[in-house]
Amino acid sequence: MPQLPKRTWRLIFLGIVAVIVVWIGSTTFYTVQEQEQAAILTFGKYTATQEKSGLHFKLPSPIQRVVKVPANLTQKLHIGYREDSGGKVTPVESEALMITGDENIVSADAVIEWKIANIRDYLYNIDDPEQFLRNSASAAIRSVIGSTKLDYAITEGKTVIQADVKKKLIEIQEKYGTGIQIDDLKFQDIEPPEGQVQTAFKEVTNAREEKNTKINQAQKYVNDRLPKARGEAQALIEQAEAQKKSRILNAQGDVAQFNAVYNEYAKNPEVTADRLVLETLEQILPNAKVIVTDGSGDTVNYLPLDSFLKNSGAKSTTSSGTGGTTTQPERRPGRCRTMNTRKWILTGVGALLLVILLSGSMFVVGEGQYKVVLKFGEATRIHQSPGIHFKIPFIESVRTLPKYQRIYDSQPTTILTKDKKPIIVDNYSVWRISDPHRFLRSLQTVSAAEGRIGDAVYNAVRRKLSEIEYGSIISETTARGDINDEITQMVKDVAANQNYGIDIIDVRIKKTDLPEENKQSVYNRMISDRQSIAAGYLSEGDEQSRKVTSNADRQAQELIAQAEADAKKIVAEGEKEAARIYNEAYGKDPKFYKLYRTLQSYTTTFKGEPVIMLPADSPYTRILLGER
């Protein structure tokens, strides 16, 4: 067999060294981004957390391994909808629709802001913590809304519901040690389902606004009607006061005029009387036709009379880079194309056997794992402490089982409740392997275990919920406590009796829903209820508007009626005072008053072109003819 040149051996050696250097370099250094933290695993055991960003050093693989998570990043979980990186929102009706405590349906959309608070728990204490967060959030929201009435949930109850759900969600994460920190929970909307139901609710809002509008318009009428009535009443009083004062002043003026004439009359009664008569005749006779009759009734015209005057108001753009994967040239440092001598052949074979023996005798237990050592198929020992362990090569094998908590989503189940109402219930279970020996003997695989759990949950849910009325299922409470706790205990008992080697930690109602035909009946009832409420608002608006306006009219009429009565009293007071003034003046000489007032009456009575018939022997005729 030909011997290789020394130069060839040197190149082979340098190649092997280069591969080792590259391998060490590529598995020794790692980078941590700003939003990340890194878990350092030494032979599978969690040994350190790297919180600082930048370039870091570790022992080469497979001694140490790095798992990076975005622990410094505030992440969002959407319930009832999904939002992509461009802000486009896609509703998820199956998550959003929820049954309220008064057996109605609302659509609730929430966003949860969360961070990874404990990397070790997040990675190794529970399977798929993000899915568990979604399940527990959905369960918490439905539990709280299921204990809340519709009208409260869609109005002022939103803040209270947010606080209650957040509190429940925090308690659940702490109970199961998910390593998740809940920073905030906000409801985007809690509203009636879209379509005709939402339209009916909007009609209620519109009817309420219309009611308020009618009441406001009625109040506006009141604000206009009553001030006007008060003004009208005040005007009546002021007119009466003016009339009273005018009447008194007129009386005082008349009396003053009367007294002036009377004082002259008292000095010379006959002359004054004739003068007054003549002055009166001068006023009334120019337009009058005077007829003087004699004793036999015949008429004689003395004076023709002349005429008298007569009066008359995003898209968002998702950039995806198809990064090319750089495939390093395949190096096969451990394979030699030829061996030159038996020495090198034996050395290579020995090294290979040593590697095989070492790899077959060592195994690593990682975080969140059980390693079951099987000797010819029989479980002889179990390792659950993370780190490196040993076994007998070729004779013993290793089986890996999950040690962390697992989440199992059951298939939705249709149940007929105690009060004969159909309801669809969707559960999730939290479980873990507690005894790997028993688990392997009875179940063997995780999928088999979840099949048995699914059967037990199905039977427990059907049996328990058929004993409970619909309303208690929605609120998840009975007189004996929480329904979830009772179902959990029932499934626990089944697992314990069957020696499955598993622990049922919790069984929780994730979702309650109605069959489609029943859901439509609820929608129809909700629409009918809202239409009735809307009609009630409109009727209340009409009634209150009429009450307000009629009350305003009544008050206005009362104000005016009272003002008219008061005005009459005021006028009467004026008349009374005027009469007193007249009586006091005119009572001095009734005979003169009679003459004085008679002459005044002539000036107002004989207007236009009157025809006056006087007896020939009348005193006025004699005065008229100048015979006196």
TrEMBL record:
GO terms for biological process: proteolysis. Its main location: membrane. Residues 312-335 are annotated as: Disordered. InterPro entries: Band_7 (IPR001107), Band_7/SPFH_dom_sf (IPR036013), HflC (IPR010200), HflK (IPR010201). The chain crosses the membrane at residues 12-32, 344-365. Gene3D superfamilies: Band 7 domain. Residues 27-205, 360-526 form the Band domain. It comes from the Bacteria. One of its GO terms (cellular component) is membrane. Keywords: Hydrolase, Membrane, Protease, Transmembrane, Transmembrane helix. It is found in: Membrane. One of its GO terms (molecular function) is peptidase activity. HflC and HflK could encode or regulate a protease. HflC and HflK may interact to form a multimeric complex. Belongs to the band 7/mec-2 family. HflK subfamily. Belongs to the band 7/mec-2 family. HflC subfamily. This is Protein HflK. It comes from Cohnella rhizosphaerae. The gene is hflK.
